[in-house]
Automatic annotation (TrEMBL):
<dbReference type="GO" id="GO:0004550">
    <property type="term" value="F:nucleoside diphosphate kinase activity"/>
</dbReference>
<feature type="domain" description="Nucleoside diphosphate kinase-like">
    <location>
        <begin position="3"/>
        <end position="137"/>
    </location>
</feature>
<comment type="subunit">
    <text>Homotetramer.</text>
</comment>
<keyword id="KW-0808">Transferase</keyword>
<dbReference type="Pfam" id="PF00334">
    <property type="entry name" value="NDK"/>
</dbReference>
<dbReference type="GO" id="GO:0046872">
    <property type="term" value="F:metal ion binding"/>
</dbReference>
<keyword id="KW-0597">Phosphoprotein</keyword>
<feature type="binding site">
    <location>
        <position position="104"/>
    </location>
    <ligand>
        <name>ATP</name>
    </ligand>
</feature>
<comment type="similarity">
    <text>Belongs to the NDK family.</text>
</comment>
<feature type="binding site">
    <location>
        <position position="114"/>
    </location>
    <ligand>
        <name>ATP</name>
    </ligand>
</feature>
<keyword id="KW-0547">Nucleotide-binding</keyword>
<dbReference type="GO" id="GO:0006241">
    <property type="term" value="P:CTP biosynthetic process"/>
</dbReference>
<keyword id="KW-0546">Nucleotide metabolism</keyword>
<feature type="active site" description="Pros-phosphohistidine intermediate">
    <location>
        <position position="117"/>
    </location>
</feature>
<dbReference type="GO" id="GO:0005737">
    <property type="term" value="C:cytoplasm"/>
</dbReference>
<keyword id="KW-0963">Cytoplasm</keyword>
<dbReference type="InterPro" id="IPR001564">
    <property type="entry name" value="Nucleoside_diP_kinase"/>
</dbReference>
């Protein structure tokens, strides 16, 4: 295992409901170091660019409306085996299928409003990190 990085965002539903602090506590207690963090409010267009890979999917319009409905907290995280371990920590996309103890099991409301994002590969972690953070903000 090598130390590497992943990208996450606390999504609008979880930020609006005041779960950011609890979620960040879980992330840090699981051994992830916060490399970069901020709070931003995406336009629908920017949300659409982030999720461009899903643009042919039926849920794309709802997803980009949801992701631009309020502020989010993007973060870059570092840990051994970061991408896979973080996906395990957040749980399945659909909270109904997420394991006990996962962040989505605790905080997600639905398959769309599912509280948090986690990159699915090292390559996407880098692309997604660079979407939100300039090089000088990543340390
Ligand atoms: P992931 O976030 O667990 O990697 P993806 O399949 O990449 O899941 O989907 C991106 C996001 O799109 C999900 O986190 C969720 O917010 C939303 N989404 C995925 N599938 C559905 C669906 O079937 N209906 C509504 N929203 C969905």
């Amino acid at each position: 295992m090598t130390t590497n990085r992943t990208f996450t965002m606390i999504k609008p539903d979880a930020v609006a409901e005041g779960h950011s602090g609890a979620i960040i506590k879980i992330i840090e207690e699981a051994g992830f170091r916060i490399v970069a963090i901020k709070k931003v409010h995406l336009t629908k267009e920017r949300a659409g660019q982030f999720y461009a890979v899903h643009q042919e999917r039926p849920f794309y319009d709802g997803l980009t409306t949801y992701m631009s409905s309020g502020p989010i907290i993007p973060m870059i995280l570092e840990k051994d085996n970061a991408v896979a371990d973080f996906r395990k920590l957040i749980g399945a996309t659909n909270p109904a299928q997420a394991e006990e103890g996962t962040i989505r099991k605790q905080f997600a409301k639905s398959v769309e409003s599912n509280a948090i994002h986690g990159s699915d590969s090292d390559e996407n972690a880098k692309i997604e990190s660079d979407f939100f953070f300039a090089g000088l903000e990543q340390f």
